[in-house]
Design goal:
358 residues, alpha/beta, 18 helices, 8 strands, 49% helix, 7% strand, globular
Length: 358
């Protein structure tokens, strides 16, 4: 089984298409029609390359993200910056995603790929769940540069980084250490903060609290939480000043730099260090739930497996040719046999039972 992180592949293709197609701009945004054809070309080129390079692994599964996400239920700030970044981007993402949805429908209905999207699940969840389910019984490789996917190595699956153009190799000890560092440091790209962020108030904010008659008997013992717990629980009340303005986070919390080197020192006596501050423990549990595949909720896990089992294999070379012709994708018309598959193999895959895979 070849599991492709579709979003990762799509974003790479988008920015390469823009850099090479050099689209014009209107009102500060690229004209989608100027690059979308080249985007489709790059996507199909990548999928053909994946099929050629990893064909011995079996079927290609395209794992898609969905708008809903169970991680936002755990931590509302998860990937919270994405919308802002896209709103401020010179790419019209609303328009682009309409084209992507139409393209994935074509891939799903006519091409020899299994397209899977599950409510409340990310591609990460799909990759993690399918790898854990099927790696013990068959060869499984995931195609992505997302560091979270290193976890599938535990299940016996393989991971190929298309940017570095190499397989990711880690020993059990290295993987164990990486997982702990990942929990402690969080994931800035996904908006998951490190465990120390937001655990110490600034002196300015402490003075502000005092002015509002919120007193601390012993500021030196603030991080013991016997004193600060009330402040954290009522924080939303106190972060608004007398003018009704919401204070900037930088004015409220001290900067707490914490990277891989700090995490390794923290790990030397992790139990003792976590006990220094109850907020450390809370944040550790939060991050563990957000970043580890083994924390995927049972209902999401079950939905992924059921959805995968119910996928109907669809393959129509005539429709593929129509699509390529309509979109002037001549390079792929000339190599259309790359999309063909053996009819008997198609029949076998169309039976769609999980039992056949396990």
């Amino acid at each position: 089984m070849i599991i492709v992180d579709f979003s990762h592949l799509s974003m790479r293709s988008l920015y390469i298409a823009i850099s090479q197609a050099r689209p014009q701009k209107v009102d500060g945004q690229y004209i989608t029609q100027d690059f979308i054809k080249f985007y489709k070309h790059l996507m199909l080129q990548s999928l053909r390359h994946i099929s050629d390079k990893f064909g011995s692994y079996g079927d290609i599964v395209l794992a898609l993200d969905t708008k809903t996400n169970w991680r936002k239920e755990v931590y509302p700030g998860y990937k919270g910056h994405r919308k802002k970044d896209r709103d401020e981007s010179d790419v019209n993402f609303d328009e682009f995603f309409v084209h992507v949805a139409e393209f994935t429908d074509v891939l799903d209905n006519y091409f020899p790929y299994k397209v899977i999207v599950v409510d409340r699940a990310e591609a990460d969840d799909i990759v993690g769940v399918l790898s854990k389910k099927f790696a013990p019984y068959e060869k499984v490789v995931a195609i992505s540069s997302d560091k979270d996917f290193k976890q599938i190595l535990e299940y016996g699956a393989e991971l190929y980084d298309p940017i570095k153009k190499s397989y990711v190799r880690m020993s059990k000890e290295e993987l164990k250490e990486w997982k702990m560092i990942h929990i402690l440091c969080g994931d800035e790209g996904d908006g998951v903060p490190h465990i120390k962020r937001g655990t110490q108030f600034t002196d300015t904010f402490l003075s502000y609290l005092k002015q509002n008659e919120v007193y601390i008997n012993d500021p030196e013992k603030f991080n013991e939480l016997s004193i600060s717990e009330k402040l954290y629980s009522e924080f939303d009340t106190y972060k608004v000043n007398k003018k009704g303005e919401v204070l900037n986070e930088l004015d409220i919390f001290k900067a707490t730099p914490f990277g891989e080197a700090g995490a390794k020192k923290f790990m030397v006596d992790i139990k003792t260090n976590l006990k220094q501050n109850k907020i450390f423990i809370q944040n550790f549990k939060r991050n563990k739930e957000l970043v580890l595949f083994d924390s995927i909720p049972d209902d999401v896990r079950e939905s992924i497996l059921i959805t995968f089992e119910d996928i109907e294999f669809k393959y129509d070379p005539n429709e593929i040719m129509k699509f390529l012709t309509k979109n002037s994708l001549t390079a792929h018309l000339m190599n259309i046999t790359d999309f063909y598959i053996d009819g008997n193999r198609a029949k076998e895959r169309d039976s769609g039972s999980l039992a056949e895979w396990s």
